[in-house]
């Protein structure tokens, strides 16, 4: 264990915040689908991968500018999310929880395989949005892309908040998450809402993937790891409030970066992947009683 | 179900026939060239039957089975190379250690259910994989371990592919028979009751969590034994055989075989391994498919499709659905025979 200098602390705080924003976006996707449909989508991480790979393809190979490439990647991923719901979840009516888990895992592997076939298995990286020259703040170096990540996450959170509180669709989604049968009694179609939830979650994941890919590489197999971290963020937020999920994601990102920076005992950077998972097991165990009650009710 | 087959002379004939087939298959006239494939089917059948028991009879899904498989392989490999422990003793130590690990982690994990249980086992599996990769001084890191010796009894060494084939299938048959007996026992009925309704099982005095953990431990010990056999079969192991995708492959085998069928596990393991080792390389030779199968990720597409299609259209699994259809067809035929 080594003591941290202020510089190192600020540095790991900012990179933790940046990573955490991505986890938050993924976690929000998990939360929206879970609240509206009661399903945990094990393919959530694949949308992040799709966002990164699509933005790489659109900027590097198709030569599109950054903004249209970003929007198009998010749109395509949203369509894939909608197709996932229509082709698998809706087709498997009255499937058990175990069936749904296996179906979404199958979808994850399928999407991963398709991505590997289309873009190859090597990690790729699209160009950063605005330049590569780092900024120096309080002794820490920050890449412009990190600022973009934080800004876009904030913007997405605000847009989501407005969607859920000020639009008919958002209110209908919230009604579904409160009580699906009561919602359908007042004329809300839960199936349409589930479709929207899947598309929205896929779009959020792809947004995260597209903004983080220029900073850290993206490859066809990155989905599972990213998905798990988003799931940790969502569990820390209790799968309920959006603010809590965003805070959960940022806490996870900061914890990861700070433990790596401290280099304490087993938490060397070699074990970076395991930190979130250990956290996941701890959260699940602490909350196990509450979680199983919730599942029994739903 | 199996009970309807019981006492049927055809089922005994089928058993004798499959044993005979098992003995004849590795001959040069049949599949002698594919002996490593046949052996792999035996190894993966052992892992898969454990997962089938766990999933089919408790109604819960575990996504980290490759971790127990890896634990068995690594403990066997490390003890028999670095520490010169007798391979059989190493195999027993591996099975006991893996079982103990599953027992200790099982109690907290099986307080969860459904999605959270799946995520917890997935997380546990990936943590183990990270350890396999990173504990370099013991596991050899990403390169893994080599020089794992053959098994031997007295002066008889299992030093050829054919000898190892018979050894591994001996283990496989014993484990399949044990599994079938477990399912027909009191414990098996308790587990089926849990699958039917946890609340109802609990109300008639079944300690639900305890039974789930027991079957979790059993599946872990199976996986560990299979891992030990795998290590002594291939003589070299690395972390990539025990990652998340390895768990998904085992899951696919169980799903194709049918989640509540002991013999289906063999069918599932065989189908998936033939698909991966034989069919996909063949398909990639076909000219118009070549460009599609070039990256090596194609098998993921096929596994993903299999998982989705089987679960959507035949949630009981491919093997069990086909078998039930055959049973219904036979029943209808005998009834018609009785009328005329």
Q: Give the strand content of chain B.
A: under 5%
* DSSP strand count of chain B: 2
What global shape of chain A is seen? Answer: globular
Task: Supply the CATH architecture of chain A.
Answer: Orthogonal Bundle
Secondary structure elements and pairings:
The complex is a heterodimer of chains A (298) and B (340).
Chain A: H1 6-37, H2 44-61, H3 66-89, H4 97-119, E1 135-137, E2 140-142, H5 144-166, H6 168-178, H7 180-185, H8 190-212, H9 223-236, H10 242-262, H11 272-286, H12 288-297
Antiparallel strand pairs in A: 1-2
Helix pairs in contact in A: 1-5, 1-6, 1-8, 1-9, 1-10, 2-3, 2-4, 2-8, 2-9, 3-8, 5-6, 5-8, 6-8, 9-10, 9-11, 10-11
Chain B: H1 2-5, H2 9-24, H3 35-58, H4 65-81, H5 87-109, H6 114-134, H7 136-139, E1 152-153, E2 156-157, H8 161-184, H9 186-196, H10 198-203, H11 208-234, H12 244-257, H13 262-283, H14 287-290, H15 298-313, H16 318-339
Antiparallel strand pairs in B: 1-2
Helix pairs in contact in B: 3-8, 3-11, 3-12, 3-13, 4-5, 4-6, 4-11, 5-11, 8-9, 12-13, 12-15
Explain this structure to me?
- The complex is a heterodimer of chains A (about 300) and B (about 350).
- With about 300 residues, chain A is mainly alpha-helical.
- Chain A contains 12 helices and 2 strands.
- Chain A has a two-stranded antiparallel sheet.
- In chain A, strand 1 (about 135) and strand 2 (about 140) form a beta hairpin.
- In chain A, helix 1 packs across helix 6.
- In chain B, about 75% of the residues lie in helices and about 0% in strands.
- Chain B is built from 16 helices and 2 strands.
- A two-stranded antiparallel sheet of chain B has the order 1-2.
- Residues about 1-5 of chain B have low confidence and may be disordered.
Write a brief caption for the model.
The complex is a heterodimer of chains A (298) and B (340). With 298 residues, chain A is mostly helical. Chain A is built from twelve helices and two strands; from the N terminus they run ααααββαααααααα.
């Amino acid at each position: 264990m080594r003591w941290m200098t202020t510089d190192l602390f600020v540095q790991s705080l900012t990179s933790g915040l940046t990573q955490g924003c991505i986890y938050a976006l993924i976690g929000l996707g998990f939360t929206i689908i879970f609240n509206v449909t009661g399903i945990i989508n094990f393919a959530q991480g694949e949308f992040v991968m799709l966002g990164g790979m699509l933005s790489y393809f659109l900027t590097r190979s198709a030569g599109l500018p950054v903004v249209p490439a970003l929007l198009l990647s998010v749109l395509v991923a949203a369509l894939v999310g909608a197709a996932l719901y229509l082709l698998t979840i809706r087709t498997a009516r009255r499937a058990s929880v175990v069936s749904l888990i296996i179906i979404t895992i199958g979808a994850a592997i399928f999407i991963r395989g398709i991505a590997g076939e289309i873009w190859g298995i090597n990690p790729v990286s699209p160009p950063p949005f605005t330049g590569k020259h780092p900024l120096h703040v309080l002794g820490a170096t920050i890449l412009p892309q990190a600022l973009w990540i934080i800004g876009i996450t904030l913007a997405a959170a605000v847009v989501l908040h407005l969607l859920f509180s000020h639009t008919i669709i958002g209110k209908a989604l919230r009604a579904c998450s409160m009580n699906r049968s009561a919602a359908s009694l007042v004329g809300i179609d839960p199936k349409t809402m589930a479709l929207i939830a899947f598309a929205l979650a896929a779009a959020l994941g792809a947004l995260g993937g597209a903004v983080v890919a220029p900073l850290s590489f993206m490859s066809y197999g990155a989905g599972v790891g990213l998905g798990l971290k988003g799931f940790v963020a969502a569990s820390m937020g209790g799968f309920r409030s959006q603010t809590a999920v965003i805070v959960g994601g940022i806490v996870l990102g900061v914890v990861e970066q700070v433990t790596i920076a401290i280099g304490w005992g087993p938490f060397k950077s070699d074990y970076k992947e395991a930190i979130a998972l250990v956290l996941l097991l701890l959260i699940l165990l602490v909350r196990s009683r509450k979680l199983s009650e919730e599942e029994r009710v739903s | 179900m199996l009970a309807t087959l019981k006492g049927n002379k055809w089922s005994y004939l089928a058993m004798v026939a499959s044993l005979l087939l098992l003995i004849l298959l590795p001959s040069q006239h049949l599949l002698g060239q594919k002996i490593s494939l046949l052996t792999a089917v035996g190894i993966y059948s052992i892992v898969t039957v454990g997962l089938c028991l766990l999933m089919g009879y408790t109604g819960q899904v575990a996504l980290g089975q490759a971790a127990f498989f890896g634990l068995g392989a690594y403990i066997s490999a490390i003890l028999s190379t670095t520490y010169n422990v007798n391979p059989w003793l190493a195999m027993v130590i591996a099975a006991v250690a893996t079982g103990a690990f599953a027992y200790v982690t099982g109690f907290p994990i099986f307080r969860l259910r459904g999605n959270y249980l799946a995520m917890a086992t997935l997380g546990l599996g990936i943590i183990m994989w990270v350890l396999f990769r990173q504990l370099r001084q013991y596991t050899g890191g990403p390169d893994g371990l080599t020089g794992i010796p053959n098994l031997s009894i007295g002066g008889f060494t299992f030093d050829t592919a054919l000898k190892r084939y018979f050894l591994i299938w001996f283990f496989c048959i014993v484990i399949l028979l044990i599994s079938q007996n477990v399912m027909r026992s009191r414990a098996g009925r308790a587990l089926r009751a849990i699958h039917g309704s946890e609340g109802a099982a609990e109300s008639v005095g079944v300690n639900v969590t305890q039974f789930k953990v027991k079957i979790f431990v059993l599946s872990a010990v199976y996986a560990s034994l299979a891992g030990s056999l795998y290590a002594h079969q291939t003589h070299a192991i690395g972390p990539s055989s025990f990652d998340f995708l390895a768990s998904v492959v085992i899951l696919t085998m169980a799903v194709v075989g049918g989640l509540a069928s002991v013999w289906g596990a063999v069918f599932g393991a065989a189908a998936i391994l033939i698909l991966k080792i034989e069919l996909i390389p063949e398909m990639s030779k076909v000219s118009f498919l070549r460009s599609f199968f070039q990256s090596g990720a194609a098998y993921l597409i096929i596994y993903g499709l299999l998982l989705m299609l089987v679960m959507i259209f035949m949630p009981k699994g491919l093997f069990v659905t086909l078998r039930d259809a055959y049973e219904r067809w036979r029943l209808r035929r005998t009834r018609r025979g009785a009328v005329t």
